[in-house]
Amino acid sequence: MRGARGGRLAGELHPAIRRFTHSLPFDRRLFQEDVQGSVAHARMLGARGIVRPGEARALVRGLGRVLRELESGRFRFRETDEDIHMAVERRLTELVGPVGGKLHTGRSRNDQVALDLRLWLRGRVDALREGVAGVARALLDLAGRHRDAVLPAYTHLQRAQPVLFAHHLLAYVEMLGRDDERLAEARRRIDVLPLGAGACAGSAFPVDPRRVARELGFRAVFANSLDAVSDRDFVVEFLAAAALTLVHLSRLGEDVLLWTSREFGFARLTDRVATGSSIMPQKRNADPAELLRGRVGRVVGSLVGMLTTLKGLPLSYNRDLQEDKEALFDAVDTLKGALGAAAALVRGLRPDARAMRRAVEDPLSFLAATELADYLAERGVPFREAHAAVGALVRQCEREGRGLADLSRAELGAAHPRFGPDARARLRPGSALARRRAPGGTAPARVAVALQAARRKWG
Prior knowledge:
It is built from 19 helices and six strands. By secondary structure, it is mainly alpha-helical. It has three domains: 13-105, Fumarase/aspartase (N-terminal domain) (Fumarase C, Chain B, domain 1), CATH 1.10.275.10; 110-152 and 164-353, Fumarase/aspartase (Central domain) (Fumarase C, Chain A, domain 2, Up-down Bundle), CATH 1.20.200; 359-458, Fumarase/aspartase (C-terminal domain) (Ribonucleotide Reductase Protein R1, domain 1), CATH 1.10.40. Helix 10 packs antiparallel against helix 12 (296-310). It starts with 14 loop residues before the first helix and ends with a helix.
C-alpha cells in the first residue's frame, strides 16, 4: 500500500518531515471512531452499488478484525503509518487484500478526519455532562445537610451580609446549570455528519450521507462541502464551554481554600481529600482546590490557540487543522479530571456552622448595617439619606469599638428621627435572612424552594 503519497511523489519522505507531519502519536486515540465511521461508509458503498455487496461485507469483516486488534493492543503500528486513518486502512488491506483499497472510495481524509473528531467529541461531551451533574449533586447534598448554617457573604472580599450556606452553594449549582446548557448546545452543533463532502467539492459517486448519518446517530448532514471539511467551530465552542466550566470550578476551589484556612475557619477537609507538606508536619493543604484554579490556564490556552489557528485560514481544508486534536484531547482530559476532583472535594468538605455564625455575629463586621438603612427607607426616608445616617453610626461604632447592637434606642434616634423602638430587632441575623424573601434571595423559605427545584433538575 503506497499510502497518501500515491504515485505522484517519488522516494521516501524526509525523516524530519515525517516526524513533523505525522499525527499518529496523538490521533491514535480516535481508532474506535475511525473504524466505526469506516464500517458505516463501507455499508453505504455496498448499499449504493459503489462496491459489490460481497466486497462491502469483506470490508466490514476486516474492519471488525482491525478493531479487535486495536482494542486488545495486538495491532502493530508501522513507522510509515502517517495517522490512525492510514494505519487502519493499511492493516485492512493486509487482511482482506486489494479490496481494502476500495474503502476510501467516495471519501477523503478531510471529511474522514472531521467525522472521527465529531464522533469522538460527541461521546465525550455526554460523559462530561454527567461529570457536571456529579458536582452539582455533591453541592446539593452538602447544602441539604447544612440548611440552617449561616455565613457572611462577601463583596470585594469584605464581609457584607449574612446568607445561608446552602444559598452560597446553590450559586455554584446555577453556574453548573449554565455549563451543562453550553455543553448540550455544543453537542448539538457537533452532531452534524461531514462524511460525503470529500476533499472539498463533494463526491462524484452516488453516496448517501443520510444513510450514514442514521447508522451513526447524527441528527443532520452537512449542507456545504467546503464548510464540512474546514469547520472547527464545534471545537472552539466546546473549548469555550470547557474553559468556562473550569473557571467556575476554579472559583469554587478558591472559596474552599478560603473557608478551610485558619484565617476563615469555616470548614475543614477530610483526610481523603487533603494533602500534607514534605517538610512541615502540621500542614493540611487543600491542594485539589489549588489545582482546580491552576488547570484553567491549560484549557483557556487551548481555546486561544484554536482561535489563533483558525483566524487566517482560507477555505477549505488546511493542514493547520491538525492542531485541533492535541488541544481538544487535553481539554477533555483536563475537564474530566477536574470535575471528578471537584465532586470529591465537595464531598470531603466539613463545614463548621458555629465558626460561620461567629463571623456573622462579630459585632465589628456590621453585617446588619443594610438592615438599618432598609428600615429607614421603608419609612419613607430617601435611601441615600438612610445610607448616610447608618454610615455615620458605623463610623461612630468603629471609633468606640462597639457593634451596632450596642447602640441604645436614644443613640439610634439621635442618628435619625425615623428610627423607632423596633429598629433594634433588625440587627438579628435571623431577621436579616428572613427578610430576603424576594425571588432569588437567601430567605430560608426561598432557599428551600430553590433546593427542591435543583434536586428535580439534577436528579
